[in-house]
Protein backbone atom coordinates (compact mmCIF):
# COMPACT_ATOMS: atom_id res chain seq x y z
CA UNK A 1 0.00 0.00 0.00
CA UNK A 2 2.87 2.37 0.76
CA UNK A 3 4.41 1.81 -2.67
CA UNK A 4 1.02 2.38 -4.32
CA UNK A 5 0.56 5.62 -2.38
CA UNK A 6 4.05 6.78 -3.39
CA UNK A 7 3.39 6.01 -7.07
CA UNK A 8 0.09 7.88 -7.01
CA UNK A 9 1.66 10.86 -5.26
CA UNK A 10 4.57 10.99 -7.74
CA UNK A 11 2.10 11.07 -10.61
CA UNK A 12 -0.16 13.63 -8.90
CA UNK A 13 2.92 15.83 -8.40
CA UNK A 14 3.75 15.67 -12.12
CA UNK A 15 6.84 13.47 -11.80
CA UNK A 16 5.37 10.86 -14.18
CA UNK A 17 3.56 11.73 -17.46
CA UNK A 18 1.31 8.67 -17.50
CA UNK A 19 -0.51 6.59 -14.91
CA UNK A 20 -1.81 3.17 -15.95
CA UNK A 21 -4.20 1.20 -13.77
CA UNK A 22 -6.62 -1.67 -14.14
CA UNK A 23 -10.36 -1.14 -13.77
CA UNK A 24 -10.15 -3.16 -10.58
CA UNK A 25 -7.63 -0.72 -9.11
CA UNK A 26 -9.54 2.25 -10.53
CA UNK A 27 -12.61 1.21 -8.65
CA UNK A 28 -10.95 0.97 -5.25
CA UNK A 29 -9.89 4.05 -3.37
CA UNK A 30 -7.82 6.06 -5.84
CA UNK A 31 -8.26 9.80 -6.20
CA UNK A 32 -6.47 11.00 -9.32
CA UNK A 33 -7.23 14.71 -9.40
CA UNK A 34 -4.21 15.46 -11.61
CA UNK A 35 -5.87 13.53 -14.47
CA UNK A 36 -7.15 15.31 -17.54
CA UNK A 37 -7.77 12.18 -19.65
CA UNK A 38 -9.11 8.71 -18.79
CA UNK A 39 -8.81 6.04 -21.49
CA UNK A 40 -10.70 2.75 -21.20
CA UNK A 41 -9.17 0.03 -23.37
CA UNK A 42 -11.07 -3.03 -22.16
CA UNK A 43 -14.74 -2.49 -21.34
CA UNK A 44 -16.08 -4.24 -18.29
CA UNK A 45 -19.43 -6.03 -18.54
CA UNK A 46 -20.79 -3.79 -15.79
CA UNK A 47 -20.83 -0.13 -16.91
CA UNK A 48 -21.01 1.05 -13.29
CA UNK A 49 -17.50 -0.32 -12.73
CA UNK A 50 -16.15 1.79 -15.59
CA UNK A 51 -18.06 4.82 -14.36
CA UNK A 52 -16.60 4.41 -10.90
CA UNK A 53 -13.08 4.12 -12.32
CA UNK A 54 -13.60 7.25 -14.44
CA UNK A 55 -14.97 9.08 -11.42
CA UNK A 56 -11.58 8.67 -9.73
CA UNK A 57 -10.46 11.63 -11.84
CA UNK A 58 -13.55 13.70 -10.93
CA UNK A 59 -12.88 14.26 -7.25
CA UNK A 60 -12.75 17.23 -4.91
CA UNK A 61 -9.58 19.07 -5.82
CA UNK A 62 -9.91 18.49 -9.57
CA UNK A 63 -9.35 21.86 -11.27
CA UNK A 64 -9.42 20.95 -14.99
CA UNK A 65 -11.81 19.31 -17.43
CA UNK A 66 -11.49 15.53 -17.74
CA UNK A 67 -11.99 13.72 -21.04
CA UNK A 68 -13.09 10.07 -20.91
CA UNK A 69 -12.32 7.99 -24.02
CA UNK A 70 -13.27 4.40 -24.78
CA UNK A 71 -11.15 2.66 -27.41
CA UNK A 72 -12.78 -0.49 -28.79
CA UNK A 73 -11.89 -2.49 -31.90
CA UNK A 74 -14.73 -3.30 -34.30
CA UNK A 75 -16.23 -6.78 -34.46
CA UNK A 76 -14.79 -7.88 -31.12
CA UNK A 77 -16.27 -9.15 -27.90
CA UNK A 78 -15.44 -5.76 -26.43
CA UNK A 79 -17.72 -4.10 -29.00
CA UNK A 80 -20.54 -6.42 -27.89
CA UNK A 81 -19.84 -5.58 -24.25
CA UNK A 82 -20.07 -1.87 -25.05
CA UNK A 83 -23.42 -2.40 -26.78
CA UNK A 84 -24.58 -4.29 -23.71
CA UNK A 85 -23.77 -1.23 -21.59
CA UNK A 86 -26.54 0.74 -23.29
CA UNK A 87 -29.04 -2.05 -22.80
CA UNK A 88 -28.07 -2.48 -19.14
CA UNK A 89 -28.31 1.26 -18.47
CA UNK A 90 -31.79 1.42 -20.06
CA UNK A 91 -32.93 -1.63 -18.10
CA UNK A 92 -31.60 -0.21 -14.85
CA UNK A 93 -33.20 3.18 -15.51
CA UNK A 94 -36.53 1.45 -16.18
CA UNK A 95 -36.30 -0.39 -12.88
CA UNK A 96 -35.49 2.84 -11.02
CA UNK A 97 -38.39 4.64 -12.65
CA UNK A 98 -40.72 1.77 -11.83
CA UNK A 99 -41.83 1.41 -15.44
CA UNK A 100 -41.68 -2.37 -15.30
CA UNK A 101 -39.60 -2.58 -18.48
CA UNK A 102 -37.57 -5.41 -16.98
CA UNK A 103 -40.68 -7.55 -16.70
CA UNK A 104 -41.50 -6.97 -20.40
CA UNK A 105 -38.36 -8.73 -21.65
CA UNK A 106 -39.01 -12.23 -22.94
CA UNK A 107 -36.50 -15.07 -23.12
CA UNK A 108 -35.43 -14.18 -26.70
CA UNK A 109 -34.72 -10.57 -25.71
CA UNK A 110 -32.74 -11.62 -22.65
CA UNK A 111 -30.64 -14.02 -24.75
CA UNK A 112 -30.05 -11.23 -27.30
CA UNK A 113 -28.75 -9.03 -24.47
CA UNK A 114 -26.28 -11.73 -23.50
CA UNK A 115 -25.20 -12.55 -27.06
CA UNK A 116 -24.87 -8.94 -28.20
CA UNK A 117 -25.14 -7.69 -31.79
CA UNK A 118 -24.81 -10.26 -34.54
Layout of SSEs?
Layout: H1 2-12, H2 23-26, E1 37-40, H3 47-55, E2 67-70, H4 77-97, H5 101-104, H6 107-115
Could you explain the architecture of this structure?
This protein is mainly alpha-helical and 118 residues long. It has 6 helices and 2 strands. The radius of gyration is 18 Å and the shape is elongated.
Task: Describe the structure concisely for a colleague.
This protein is 49% helix and 7% strand. With 118 residues, the protein is mainly alpha-helical.
> Could you state the order of secondary-structure elements as H and E?
HHEHEHHH
Kindly give the count of domains.
2
Strand segment count: 2
Main β-sheet, spatial strand arrangement: 1-2
- Helix count, per DSSP? 6
Give the overall pLDDT as a whole number: 79
**What would you report as the Rg, rounded to the nearest angstrom?**
18 Å
Distance N terminus to C terminus?
44 Å
Major beta sheet, specifics?
2 strands, parallel
**Cα shape:** elongated
Task: Give the percentage of residues in beta strands.
Answer: 5-15%
Contiguous runs where pLDDT drops below 50 for at least 5 residues: none
Q: How would you classify the helix and strand content by structural class?
A: mainly alpha
Give the fraction of residues assigned to helices. 40-55%
Features:
mainly alpha, 2 domains, 49% helix, single chain, elongated
Amino acid sequence: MKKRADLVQAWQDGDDPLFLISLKAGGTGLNLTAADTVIHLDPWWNPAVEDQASDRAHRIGQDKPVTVVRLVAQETIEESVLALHGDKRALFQGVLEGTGEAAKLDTQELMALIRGPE
